[in-house]
Write a structure and sequence with these properties.
This protein has 73 residues and is mainly alpha-helical. It is 51% helix and 11% strand. The chain contains three helices and two strands, in the order E-H-E-H-H. The radius of gyration is 14 Å and the shape is flat.
Length: 73
């Protein structure tokens, strides 16, 4: 699970393009991406927590045998 915070500069064309490319690389590795902005922190914090928990559950339920990455011990 990858959490990405989009601050005010992330809607600029260059930053947005870089964000899209990075997200595609994460997804190619089988990672789930949850994006958030200031409105997700307040007033939408409860919904963000629910989205993060749901994504974590989906990630834990999937077959991880083919993952191409590992966390260091």
């Amino acid at each position: 699970l990858v959490g990405e915070y989009d601050g005010s500069g992330h809607r600029q064309l260059e930053a947005h393009t870089a964000d899209n490319l990075r997200e595609e690389r994460f997804e190619a590795m089988g990672l789930l991406v949850v994006r958030a902005s200031a409105l997700d922190l307040w007033p939408g914090r409860a919904q963000l927590v629910a989205r993060l928990r749901a994504a974590w559950s989906r990630g834990m339920a999937r077959d991880r045998v083919g993952d191409r990455w590992r966390c260091a011990p």
